[in-house]
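4.2 Preliminary Data

To establish feasibility before requesting continued support, the project team ran the inverse folding procedure on a target of 118 residues. The structure was first converted into the token representation described in Section 3, and no sequence information of any kind was made available to the design step. The complete token record follows.
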């Protein structure tokens, strides 16, 4: 079985890639924004709400948590010696651009509704 890991709204979710079934979900910290992930050595490292978590890939158990004191709550790029950090940075930029576009579309739609347009 191959697994797919999602970081969404402060949760780490594991799906079966073949069926799409949810295998487990772990609530991390924040319920807003992007939860960044790195999979390595049967562990998932997840950043959420200003904290870094190490989670067992097999069952979603939190193995450790680092509060990253003094570093704030902004976006975080996670990389290791085995992963290309620039790829992750590109993915984060694409997610942020998508969110900004969605905001512009929502604002435009709201303005059109207020003006009586369809």
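Position-by-position output of the design step:
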């Amino acid at each position: 079985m191959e697994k797919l890991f999602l970081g969404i709204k402060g949760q780490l979710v594991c799906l079966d890639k073949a069926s799409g079934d949810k295998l487990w979900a772990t609530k991390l910290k924040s319920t807003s924004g992007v939860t960044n992930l790195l999979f390595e050595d049967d562990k998932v490292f997840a950043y959420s709400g200003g904290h870094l978590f190490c989670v067992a890939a097999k069952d979603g158990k939190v193995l450790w948590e680092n509060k990253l004191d003094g570093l704030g709550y902004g976006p975080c790029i996670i990389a290791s010696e085995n992963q290309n950090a620039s790829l992750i940075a590109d993915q984060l930029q694409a997610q942020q651009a998508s969110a900004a576009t969605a905001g512009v579309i929502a604002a435009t739609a709201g303005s059109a509704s207020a003006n009586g347009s369809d």
